[in-house]
Design brief:
It is built from two helices and five strands, in the order ααβββββ. With 154 residues, the chain is mostly beta strands.
Length: 154
C-alpha cells in the first residue's frame, strides 16, 4: 500500500509530467507528511487509556499511510500488532529495532587488520576480531561511601 501511495505522488513522464494524484484530483499532492519507511516512532497513549505513572507513548515502527484518513500505520512493538494513529512522533534517525549508530562502534574495529587494496581506493575491507575492547564505561563503578547524615534531630 505504501509503495502505491508514494508512486501516485511521483511525476510521470507519460502523462505530461504530472502525478497520478494530480490527474485524478486536479491539484498537486502535498508530501509534507511523508516519512522514512521503517523508522522508529512513538505512539501517544491517550490520557483516558493510561494511569498517572504509565508512559505517555509506546515505541513502534513506521509501516505506511492509512488510505482512508490522515493517519499512519505503525507496528506497536509492545502490543505486537499494527495500529493506526495520527498521534505519532517520528525518529527518522533510528530504524526499526536496531540501536542508533554512534562513533562508539569504531572501538570494535581492529584497524590493524584492515586490508587496503591499492587498485580500488575507498573499497577498504576489514575483519572484526571478535574481541571486545574494554572501554571506561564497561568497568564496574564502585558504590559510593555510606555516610551518616546528622540532621540535628537527636
Amino acid at each position: 500500500m505504501t509503495a502505491i501511495y508514494i508512486k501516485d505522488r511521483l511525476l510521470s513522464p507519460k502523462v505530461m509530467h504530472k502525478t497520478p494524484f494530480e490527474i485524478v484530483h486536479n491539484s498537486k499532492p502535498s508530501v509534507k507528511h511523508m516519512r522514512v519507511f521503517g523508522c522508529q516512532v512513538y505512539i501517544l497513549t491517550p490520557k483516558e487509556k493510561r494511569l498517572k505513572w504509565d508512559p505517555k507513548a509506546r515505541t513502534g515502527i513506521f509501516l505506511g499511510y492509512e488510505e482512508a484518513s490522515k493517519a499512519y500505520r505503525v507496528y506497536d512493538i509492545e502490543a505486537g500488532q499494527v495500529v493506526i494513529s495520527r498521534d505519532v512522533n517520528f525518529d527518522e534517525s533510528a530504524f526499526g529495532l536496531s540501536p542508533p549508530i554512534t562513533a562508539e562502534h569504531a572501538d570494535d574495529i581492529d584497524f590493524d587488520s584492515l586490508d587496503l587494496d591499492d587498485e580500488a581506493p575507498g573499497q577498504a575491507q576489514y575483519k572484526k576480531t571478535g574481541k571486545r575492547k574494554s572501554r571506561p564505561h564497561d568497568e564496574e563503578v564502585p558504590a559510593p561511601p555510606r555516610t551518616q547524615c546528622n540532621n540535628g534531630m537527636d
